[in-house]
């Protein structure tokens, strides 16, 4: 464990769960030439965001990789929110004029 977090930090074939507590150490994947950390763009794409979605300016400076990973660890994947929303809409009886809000596809 790292600071009480028992989430696996190393994987060979799959990406482990991304958590905000991993912002500092990141997630390690095994590449052909050895272990490496996931980049913020890889985190974004795993979460369903477009690449460089978290590449923002904060206080006049580019966000650090650690800050970007932390923001992603604290976020919720848009594809999952879409799936939940569509399930609720279906359960409620489908499209009703005035009740449906368009969700942009990322």
Summarize this entry quickly:
By secondary structure, the chain is an alpha+beta fold. The protein contains three helices and five strands. The model has no long low-confidence stretch (mean pLDDT 76).
Architecture overview:
The protein has 106 residues and is an alpha+beta fold. 29% of the residues lie in helices and 13% in strands. It is built from 3 helices and 5 strands. The strands form 2 sheets. Strands 1-2-3 form a 3-stranded mixed β-sheet, with no helix packed on it. The protein has a two-stranded antiparallel ribbon with strand order 4-5. A hairpin with a 2-residue loop joins strand 2 (28-31) and strand 3. The chain starts with 9 loop residues before the first strand and ends in a 15-residue tail after the last helix. The relative contact order is 0.13. The model has no long low-confidence stretch (mean pLDDT 76).
Key traits:
alpha+beta, three-stranded mixed sheet, flat
Reconstruct the topology from this structure.
Layout: E1 10-11, E2 28-31, E3 34-37, H1 40-47, E4 57-58, E5 61-62, H2 65-73, H3 78-91
Parallel strand pairs: 1-2
Antiparallel strand pairs: 2-3, 4-5
Structural class: alpha+beta
Order of helices and strands: EEEHEEHH
How many angstroms does the end-to-end distance come to? 34 Å
Radius of gyration computed on alpha carbons: 17 Å
- What is the global morphology? flat
What is the spatial order of strands in the main beta sheet?
1-2-3
Biggest sheet, open or closed, and with what strands and sense?
A: 3 strands, mixed
Could you give the count of β-strands? 5
Spans of at least 5 consecutive residues whose pLDDT stays below 50 are none
Helicity level: 25-40%
Determine the number of helices (DSSP H or I, runs of at least 4 residues): 3
């Amino acid at each position: 464990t790292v600071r009480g977090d028992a989430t696996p930090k190393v994987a060979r074939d799959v990406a482990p769960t991304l958590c905000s507590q991993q912002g500092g150490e990141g997630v390690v994947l095994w590449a052909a030439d050895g272990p490496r950390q996931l980049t913020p763009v890889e985190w974004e794409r795993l979460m369903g965001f477009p690449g460089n979605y978290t590449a923002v300016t904060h206080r006049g400076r580019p966000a650090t990789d650690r800050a970007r990973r932390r923001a992603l660890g604290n976020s919720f994947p848009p594809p999952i929110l879409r799936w939940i929303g569509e399930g609720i809409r279906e359960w409620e009886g489908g499209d009703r004029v005035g009740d449906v809000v368009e969700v942009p596809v990322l």
